[in-house]
Amino acid sequence: MHGPAVKAFTDIQALDKVRNQVSDLQKQGVSFNVCGNTLKVMDLGMDELLAGMIRVDQGGVTRIGELQSQGYLYIRP
User: pTM here?
Assistant: First the structure.
């Protein structure tokens, strides 16, 4: 994830429903990658996010491009 969406996954702002859904998905093997650039701009540390998030230092958009080249799709609401 990148940009303003990251705020929804901070430990303080995450709703219990989001917290539970993230945990359930992680148990199924889903990983949540967070843009290192966004964290820097928003002055957030990994310790402020929900447990198990993975920092992507090359940037979220770059990571999305890498995943798309591997056959993943980027779906944005």
Answer: 0.81
